[in-house]
Amino acid sequence: MQTQEVLALFELPFTELVHRAQCVHREHHDPAAVQLSTLLSVKTGGCPEDCAYCPQSRRYDTGVGDEALLPLSEVIDSAKAAKAAGATRFCMGAAWRGPKDRDLEKVMTFIREVKNLGLETCVTLGMLKPGQAERLREAGLDSYNHNLDTSPEFYGQIITTREYGDRLETLERVRGAGIHVCCGGIVGMGESRRDRAAMIGQLSRLDPYPESVPINALVAVAGTPLQNQPSIEPLEFVRTIAAARIAMPKAVVRLSAGREEMPEAVQALCYLAGANSVFYGEKLLTTGNPGATRDRALFDKLGMKTLEISG
After folding, report:
1. Among all residues, which ones are annotated catalytic?
2. pTM across the whole model
């Protein structure tokens, strides 16, 4: 979809937009089902990039130190705990501009061992060089996360250490290696509604569009340039979910960062608007997330079931 088409969706009356999104959702998904993913930071802090939202950048004083890659035993223990709690997908993130080959070898071991537990695997490691996506696929990787973050027009106000085209190039390498693409963005960084529409439009025009689309609400972390950024208006966030569902009907639309402070009613509206996956567990990389017990209680209230959704 083009930006103007997505923007027209945003500008519909709220009830009409959510109704359209729910109709699209029902055509392709079980409206009472949600897939659970767990995200683990396997290498925290010390990233050389200047992403204005990120507490893991070494350019900002956020209290996040530069840590070494986790040992295999700790990763496996976390994956086992995630599976026991109901997660079907285990995602591993590393704060790198891109992985060095020696680091990639270690992550490939993580992937193999997590796969052996019967979990889907996803990693987010930054930009990939030629040949690296193929190696990850050989290790059994199911999905690679590399977000566009925002619109092409607003991107330069958030990140200056890489170009928008760099992100698209990594996505092409992932897709070319036969790995599923997990790609979304962050809203509430000071962008306009048009920027949000442009981001969704760009995602929908990827060929094919991502199997998984995480939508994050900014968590304004002290010490980052966006520390004083006001939260996105809740119904505008729901509109973003609905527009993503309509633009990418078959994708798994995942509620990601920002849920810890999100009221249950807003989350319920997000599910109504087409979200069908969440990151599950008390932590997303370095920021908080609703605990498993809290999420299960909400699913029970809504009559939602959890299951595996590939994407």
Report:
1. 47, 51, 54, 91, 122, 182, 254
2. 0.92
